[in-house]
Amino acid sequence: MIPGDLSYFLDQLIKQKLQLSTMIWGPPGIGKSSIVAQTAARHKIGFIDLRLSQLAPTDLRGLPVADQINKVSSWLPPEFLPRSGDGILFLDEINLAPPTMQGMAQQLILDRRVGSYEVPDGWFIWAAGNRKEDRATVFDMPAPLANRFIHVDVTPDLESFKEYALENNTQEEIIAFVGFRPNLLHKMEAQQPAWPSPRSWMMASKLMHAGLSLAPAIGAPTATEFNAFCQIYSALPNLTAILAGDSNTIDFPSEPSVRYATVVGLAVRASDASEAYHAYKWLVRVATPEWFQLCAIDINRRIRARKERTRLMELIEADEDLKRARDAVLQLAQGDTVARAQSFARA
Question: Does the structure show a pLDDT above 70 at 342?
Answer without folding.
Answer: no
